[in-house]
Specification:
single chain; Dihydrofolate Reductase, subunit A; nine-stranded mixed sheet; 7 helices; globular
Length: about 230
């Protein structure tokens, strides 16, 4: 395969929202689910987020558990996975957790919309920046590059736009959804997959592989995607 094995991890409410209408990164996961996510991060070679999540939340994308970081080191891995940002205009603050929290390798995919000066500032912080000569980052080309960088297992943590793009192109192998026992409502609140949407004929087909009930009333759903492709 010319791309990493790729899985999307999502925490959403029972009405399918990944944030409130305020879009401030509202907490959805339970304590138990946060521990599960930390284990997923520890088992990944890289964690990827799209532009809205990257610029809106400036996430750390690091493994929280010292024990899990230690396990990675004992396996000959870096303590944290590679942090991957995909954004057309990479106006990422140099002092942000995405750049500084770690230690972690930082890889950014962007376009010529990012100024040369800011590209230089990012690279001065040891970020590896790949510039695609197009209005938007090419997901297939990005996946091939990640494979070349040694990423064999890629975790995607949203948001809805990058989730949609990767699924639309058949670049996702697995979907993990924690559904929390709460309702956010709001027609403007974001959902796990946004973008222009699919017709019924072109809907992404899923195969349920596991269901797990959590003590808080949440449910974990694991799906395999039916139609996946090489990058």
């Amino acid at each position: 395969m010319n791309r990493p094995y790729t899985f999307i991890n999502i925490a959403m409410t029972a009405d399918g929202k990944i944030d409130t209408f305020e879009r401030k990164g509202s907490a959805i996961s339970s304590t138990q689910d946060k521990q599960r996510v930390d284990q997923l991060r520890a088992g990944a070679d890289a964690i990827l987020v799209g532009g809205k999540t990257l610029l809106g939340e400036l996430p750390k994308l690091t493994v929280k558990s010292e024990s899990l970081r230690g396990d990675r080191i004992r396996r000959g891995m870096a303590p944290n996975p590679i942090k991957v940002g995909v954004v057309s205009k990479a106006d990422i603050p140099i002092e942000s957790d995405f750049i500084q929290a770690g230690p972690a390798r930082v890889v950014i995919f962007t376009t010529a919309r990012t100024s040369i000066g800011h590209l230089e500032r990012l690279r001065a912080q040891h970020a590896e920046v790949f510039v695609h000569e197009a209005p938007r980052v090419d997901p297939r080309k990005m996946m091939r590059t990640l494979k070349e960088l040694g990423v064999n297992r890629l975790m995607v943590e949203g948001g809805g736009t990058i989730n949609f793009e990767l699924m639309k192109l058949g670049l996702v192998d697995e979907l993990m959804i924690y559904m929390a026992p709460m309702i956010f409502g709001g027609e403007g609140a974001p959902t796990p997959a946004s973008g222009p949407g699919f017709t019924r004929k072109n809907a992404v087909a899923l195969k349920l592989t596991n269901v797990e009930t959590h003590e808080d009333g949440g449910v974990l759903l694991n799906y395999k995607l039916q139609d996946t492709q090489e990058a």
